[in-house]
C-alpha cells in the first residue's frame, strides 16, 4: 500500500505542475470551495516535495513519505475530501484515522478533479 501510494504520488506531483498550466480559469461545473481545496492540496504537495526533512525526522526510503511530510499534507487532504460533501466524521470513520488512506483518498479526489477540468477544457476548444 505504501509503495503504491508513493509510486502514485511522484508522477502526480509532476503532473500537477503541468496540469496547472492547462486548467481553465473559469470553471462553471465545480463549486468554488472544491476549487480552493484543490489549490490548497496542490500547494501542500508542492511544499512537501520542495521542503527538506527536519534534522530529527525519521529517515525513510526515497520513495516513501516521512511521517513529517504526511502530517504536513493531512489537513489539506482532509479539506479536499470534505469539499466533496463528506463530513470529517465520515472521513475518520472510513479511514480509521490512517494517514495513508486519507492521503490516497485525497489523491484520488485530486486526480478526478483534474480529469474533469481537462475534459471541460478540451470540450471548450
UniProtKB/TrEMBL annotation:
Taxonomy, superkingdom: Bacteria
Record's signal peptide: 1-24
Keywords: Signal
Protein name: DUF3347 domain-containing protein
Source organism of this protein record: Chryseobacterium pennipullorum
Amino acid at each position: 500500500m505504501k509503495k503504491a501510494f508513493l509510486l502514485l504520488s511522484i508522477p502526480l506531483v509532476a503532473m500537477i505542475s503541468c496540469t496547472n498550466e492547462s486548467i481553465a480559469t473559469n470553471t462553471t461545473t465545480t463549486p468554488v470551495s472544491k476549487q480552493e481545496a484543490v489549490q490548497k492540496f496542490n500547494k501542500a504537495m508542492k511544499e512537501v516535495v520542495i521542503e527538506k526533512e527536519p534534522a530529527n525526522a525519521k529517515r525513510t526510503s526515497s520513495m516513501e513519505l516521512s511521517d513529517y511530510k504526511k502530517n504536513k499534507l493531512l489537513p489539506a487532504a482532509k479539506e479536499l475530501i470534505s469539499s466533496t460533501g463528506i463530513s470529517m466524521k465520515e472521513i475518520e470513520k472510513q479511514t480509521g484515522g490512517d494517514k495513508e488512506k486519507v492521503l490516497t483518498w485525497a489523491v484520488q479526489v485530486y486526480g478526478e478533479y483534474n480529469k474533469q477540468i481537462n475534459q471541460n477544457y478540451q470540450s471548450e476548444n
